[in-house]
UniProtKB/TrEMBL annotation:
PROSITE patterns: VOC. InterPro entries: Glyas_Bleomycin-R_OHBP_Dase (IPR029068), Glyas_Fos-R_dOase_dom (IPR004360), VOC_core (IPR037523). This is VOC domain-containing protein. It comes from Aegilops tauschii subsp. strangulata (Goatgrass). Transmembrane segments: none annotated. Residues 20-114 form the VOC domain. Pfam families: Glyoxalase.
Length: 114
């Protein structure tokens, strides 16, 4: 799968000068459970969230990375979370060191499949 021939021949437009990814946002069935996971397993800290937002959620931060947890409303049309990891689904991946320590910390939580 590629671009049409005419698209391949055009000069690319200058790209925006990105500095880094600011944050990702996840719709959650339980913001509290998600806070617990990101805090306990990955070491994220809660940060101030604008009071003007009229929906439930939490903002977390660690080492220049932000995660916005958004409370899924009742009757939401968002698909339910699958119990198995789907490599084709939307996801985020963190590179970590110390493989054994990672497995010992994460595996008991049963929130993630290693």
């Amino acid at each position: 799968m590629g671009l049409p021939a005419q698209e391949q021949q055009r000069e690319p437009e200058p790209a925006l000068p990105l500095v880094r990814l600011n944050h990702v946002a996840f719709s959650c069935t339980s913001v509290e459970d998600s806070i617990d996971f990101y805090r306990r397993v990955l070491g994220f800290q809660l940060i101030q969230r604008p009071a003007s937002l009229d929906f439930g959620g939490a903002w977390m931060h660690r080492d220049g990375m932000g995660i916005h947890l958004l409370q899924r409303s009742a009757g939401s049309d968002a698909p339910p979370r699958s119990p198995a990891i789907n490599p084709k689904g939307n996801h985020i991946s963190f590179q970590v060191s110390a493989d054994q320590a990672r497995r010992e910390l994460v595996a008991p939580s049963s929130l993630i499949n290693l």
